[in-house]
């Protein structure tokens, strides 16, 4: 399988896999810490994130990027699918789950690092709201590490309606552009570059 061999040699060069001797005349490949992130098992797996970003739904907007840059169309995703990513997800439960699973991957990696590196951030808090919290993974990690905190997982109604129940976490449906539940602390694990300037202003007002 010469083509597979070429692909694996390429991945070895980028340290995604490592080459190991199986015998005096044969060699094989083994995981590295990087490739372990791409497996479907393990608590820090990023496989669902890769599956989302390589999904045809997410790749199609790249073909609309030039028109977006030239100002001929609105968002690239909207030009490809006729709606923004959140509206598309609401109408397509399968894609909504892909997004939730991918965001859970990111949360497990990021929130674990914050809890370990900055535990003092949580000591004086009693209530925390995760805006756009998806299936509640981030808050589940926070509440497990800081059981004195009550979490509010705030996301669109179609998202929280399928979020798993968790002790110490309340799922609340709504729109962050209309209101955000009150709490000691509110956080948003998303890039503000995903929204327009006007939307960003509304986020900071609320």
Short description:
It is built from 11 helices and 6 strands.
> How many H/I helical runs?
11
Uncertain segments: 197-206
Oligomer: single chain
Q: Indicate the structural class.
A: alpha/beta
Helix content: 40-55%
**For the report, how would you describe the main beta sheet?**
4 strands, parallel
β-sheet strand percentage: 5-15%
How would you portray this structure in words?
There is one protein chain. The chain is an alpha/beta fold. Helices cover 45% and strands 15% of the residues. The chain is built from eleven helices and six strands. It has a four-stranded parallel sheet with strand order 5-4-3-6. Strands 1-2 form a two-stranded antiparallel ribbon. The relative contact order is 0.08. The C terminus is likely disordered.
Distinctive features:
206 residues, disordered C terminus, 11 helices, two-stranded antiparallel ribbon, alpha/beta, flat, 4-stranded parallel β-sheet
Secondary-structure map:
Elements: H1 2-13, E1 17-21, E2 27-31, H2 33-36, H3 47-53, H4 56-59, H5 65-69, H6 76-81, H7 85-91, H8 93-117, E3 127-131, H9 137-145, E4 150-155, H10 157-160, E5 169-173, E6 185-188, H11 197-205
Parallel strand pairs: 3-4, 3-6, 4-5
Antiparallel strand pairs: 1-2
Helix pairs in contact: 3-8, 7-8, 8-9
């Amino acid at each position: 399988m010469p083509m597979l061999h070429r692909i694996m040699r390429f991945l070895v060069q980028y340290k995604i896999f490592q080459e190991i001797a199986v015998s005096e005349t044969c060699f094989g490949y083994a995981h590295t810490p990087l490739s372990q992130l791409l497996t479907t098992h393990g608590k820090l797996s990023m496989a669902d994130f890769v599956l989302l970003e390589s999904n045809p739904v997410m790749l199609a907007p790249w073909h609309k990027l030039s028109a977006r840059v030239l100002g001929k169309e609105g968002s690239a995703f909207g030009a490809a699918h006729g709606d923004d990513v959140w509206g598309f997800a609401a109408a397509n439960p399968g894609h909504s789950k892909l997004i939730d699973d991918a965001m859970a991957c990111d949360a497990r990696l990021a929130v674990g690092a914050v809890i370990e590196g900055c535990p003092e951030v949580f000591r004086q808090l009693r209530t925390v709201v995760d805006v756009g919290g998806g299936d509640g993974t981030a808050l589940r990690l926070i509440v497990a590490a800081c059981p004195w905190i009550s979490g509010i997982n705030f996301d669109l109604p179609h998202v929280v309606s399928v979020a798993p129940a968790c002790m110490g976490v309340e799922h609340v449906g709504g729109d962050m552009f209309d209101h955000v539940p009150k709490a000691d602390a509110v956080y948003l694990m998303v890039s503000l570059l995903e929204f327009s300037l006007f939307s960003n202003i509304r986020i900071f007002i609320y």
